[in-house]
Specification:
- The structure holds three protein chains of three kinds.
- Chain A is 84% helix and 0% strand.
- Chain A is an all-alpha fold.
- Chain A has one domain.
- The two termini of chain A are 25 Å apart.
- In chain A, 51% of the residues are buried.
- By secondary structure, chain B is an all-alpha fold.
- Chain B has one domain.
- Chain B contains six helices and no strands.
- In chain B, helix 2 runs antiparallel to helix 3, helix 2 runs parallel beside helix 6 and helix 3 packs antiparallel against helix 6.
- The longest helix of chain B has 62 residues.
- Chain C is of the alpha/beta class.
- Chain C is built from six helices and ten strands, in the order E-E-E-H-E-E-H-E-H-H-H-E-H-E-E-E.
């Protein structure tokens, strides 16, 4: 099962490396969002530092929506999805593979964004371990929910508009949790970051389980 | 609820009785809430809104949980009945949620001196729930294969219901405090009349939910019924297509034996 | 001998539309069957039903001994379906696509090589992105990914479309090879002349049911030998 999942994730990553959409289009877009926040918040460095964690995760969500749609398009543009259904691979493996591929792409974008944020907002990281743990766990939650909602909103002809309104409210707890934990790690708010990591872990596990249960059903035509 | 005898009406003896109860009950509630109950020491007259706000809030959550249960049963039994229940309940839940947010804001203005208080767990949770329900109903509006749509909506419905405690917990930790009244029903300091009015409001909200549910369910059921009737016509046309083309073949077989 | 495909009064709904209304057919091991009919007759739906991709609304059916109402998932790994779309990843090379599908279907790399040889995908083509291939070349790659799977049932939707004369002959010989090896082949085509196979059973469908069948339940007699 894990071998098949890894094959699928590897294939997605190879396609992304080949098409360069993540690095040439989506990554500059994240940078652009940060710059726009800078303009909107009047380039006041203290404000930017305070709101940095929140801006970070809001930007990641906006970018994640694009990455999710990309991941779904890979399977749908030439109905490779039918082929996968007809292969001996289980829907669990497909789900885990697609989630893993999305997770690694988002993680890369987060690293780039973090570098940009430290440079542009002059943020300083107090607790590197907390930042890493939050990043990884929140991204698992986003990738697992995103993979599920990606197929859910597809095939109805209104995916671009439907996906955000379905996905973003469900991820509200992730935004709250990850923002707080980052706030603590950046030394901007007095909160217990690790408690938030705990909550994020619960959310990540729960959403992944739900995704594993529902994904196979959603891949079916009827 | 299952049998709709007269397709022109969604009402029945049961719904008329519930409607009558509401017709009598709502003025009674207004009488008690606005005139007979005393004003609160802290909240003064604003407390009177709670007699509507609290029952509405409770049944908004009941509605969403019903949607979640309906969704689970739909995926399990694949029955149209449960799908219609889930859909109907979500719509009513959205209306109740909306009213909770509006009454909460109106109540918050004199009490907390602000229309919206981010620090209040229950209001923020309800807002997120409102948004999730909007998404759910947006999905239900999309023109698509009804079975496919029902299946997808069910997955969303279950996730919405499961998300309520998670959102609630995260918002609670988020501000570490709540401005909200501690549950008014349990603090024991309420006067008898206040308690009675709150109880009356709760019963009326319940009747109102059931009443709207029944009507909305029947409308939904009739809608699918109409779609199914259309499907029979389509099937007959489709079968006719086959027979027409087979006679065509027979005629042509003398010549080429090939259709088109 | 039990038939490989056994459909009795099958009805398939696509949404509310009855794509198949009342379809009955039998197919035995090694048989080559051409399904013809006008556009929208239900040819593609029939192939997808046999692949276990669509649920049956009414009727009974089994494919390879698996009941289509209860076990249609089990049918899938034994089926090779060539649809209107090729099911390839446009950003991967021919070699990478072949590699992925071979690994996914647990085929050895020797199988992969021989499938590529068979379809003439050697040399320069190997390292070309599928995006840059012509329509006909893509169909060859797609066929090669099917060959690798060694399916027991081949479901080919207009397999001759977009292929040159040489390609068509190649497809015909592939079909005959597969049939000799014991696979059952269903070919959907609205232009029957394009299928160059000589001995063949033709099932004509319209309006979602069979209107004529040249080899009804004769089974093996119609085989290409």
């Amino acid at each position: 099962m894990l071998r098949d999942a890894w094959l699928i994730a590897q294939k997605d990553l190879r396609i992304e490396i080949r098409s360069r959409i993540i690095t040439n289009q989506i990554a500059p877009y994240t940078l652009l969002i940060l710059v726009l926040f800078g303009f909107a918040l009047d380039a006041d460095i203290e404000t930017l530092r305070d709101t940095g964690p929140g801006l970070f995760w809001v930007s990641i969500l906006l970018v994640a929506i694009l990455a999710i749609q990309r991941a779904v398009d890979i399977e749908n543009s030439d109905s490779a999805q039918d082929r996968l259904l007809l292969s001996p691979v289980s829907s669990f493996s497909i789900y885990i593979g697609k989630t893993l591929g999305l997770f690694l792409q988002l993680l890369l974008l987060e690293v780039l964004m973090m570098i940009a944020m430290i440079a542009l907002f002059d943020s300083s990281v107090d607790d590197f371990l907390l930042v890493s743990a939050t990043g990884v766990i929140a991204t698992i939650a986003i990738a697992s929910t995103g993979t599920l909602y990606g197929v859910l909103a597809t095939g109805l002809g209104v995916r671009e508009t439907l996906l955000p309104i379905l996905l973003l409210p469900v991820l509200a707890p992730v935004v709250i949790g990850a923002t707080r934990a980052f706030g603590d790690a950046f030394g901007r708010v007095n909160a217990d970051g690790w408690a938030w990591v705990g909550l994020l872990s619960v959310v990540a596990v729960l959403y992944t389980l739900l995704g594993m249960l529902a994904y196979g059903q959603l891949l079916e035509e009827a | 609820m299952q049998n709709v005898r007269n397709p022109n009406l969604t009402s029945s003896k049961g719904t008329r009785f519930m409607g009558f109860l509401l017709l009598v009950g709502v003025p009674t509630l207004v009488l008690f809430a606005f005139f007979l109950t005393p004003e609160d020491d802290n909240m003064e007259d604003a407390v009177r809104l709670l007699y509507i706000h609290v029952p509405m809030a409770i049944f908004a959550y009941v509605a969403v949980i019903t949607t979640g249960i309906g969704s689970i049963f739909y995926l399990w039994k694949k029955s149209r009945w449960w799908d219609t229940v889930a859909h109907a309940s979500a719509e009513i839940g959205l209306i109740f949620c909306g009213l909770v947010l509006v009454t909460g804001s109106i109540w918050g203005r004199p009490t907390w001196n602000t229309w919206w208080e981010w620090g209040d767990v229950r209001l923020v949770t309800t807002l997120v729930l409102f948004l999730m329900l909007l998404g759910y109903l947006a999905l239900r509006q999309v023109p698509a294969n009804p079975d496919l749509r029902a299946k997808r909506a069910s997955v969303v419905g279950i996730i919405v219901a499961i998300n309520i405690p998670i959102v609630n917990r995260s918002v609670e930790w988020w501000e570490n405090s709540t401005l909200h009244q501690q549950s008014s029903l349990t603090d024991g300091k309420l006067e008898d009349l206040t308690l009675f009015t709150l109880f009356l409001g709760l019963i009326l909200a319940g009747v109102c939910y059931l009443w709207l549910m029944t009507h909305r369910f029947r409308v939904g059921w009739l809608q699918t019924e109409i779609e199914n009737e259309g499907a029979i016509g389509v099937l007959q046309e489709r079968i006719a297509e086959g027979t027409a083309s087979s006679t065509e073949t027979i005629i042509k077989e003398d010549g080429e034996g090939e259709v088109r | 001998m039990t038939p490989v495909i056994d459909l009795q009064n099958s009805m398939v709904l696509l949404g509310r539309f009855p794509a198949l209304t009342d379809l009955t057919m039998l197919a035995s091991k090694g048989e080559i069957i051409i399904v013809k009919g006008p556009n929208g007759a239900g040819k593609s739906t029939l192939l997808r039903l046999c692949a276990g991709l669509l649920p049956m609304k009414q009727g009974t059916g089994s494919v390879l001994g698996f009941d289509l109402t209860t076990e249609r998932m089990s049918v899938r790994p034994h089926v090779g379906l060539l649809g209107h779309k090729t099911g390839l990843y446009a950003d991967l090379t021919v070699e990478e696509n072949m590699g992925f599908w071979a690994q996914i279907s647990n085929a050895s790399s020797a199988d992969k090589r021989s499938a590529m040889d068979l379809l003439g995908l050697k040399g320069r083509l190997e390292s070309v992105c599928v995006r840059n291939l012509s329509e006909g070349q893509r169909r060859r790659v797609s066929l090669a990914t099917l060959v690798v799977q060694r399916p027991s049932i081949w479901l080919l939707d207009e397999p001759h479309a977009a292929l040159d004369k040489e390609g068509k002959e190649l497809v015909d010989s592939l079909i005959i090879e597969a049939s000799k090896a014991g696979a059952t082949v269903l070919i959907a085509s609205h232009e029957i002349d394009k299928v160059g196979l000589n001995q063949k059973r033709i099932i004509e469908i319209a309006g979602g049911s069979v209107v004529s069948d040249t080899g009804e339940s004769h089974g093996k007699e119609n085989n290409v030998t």
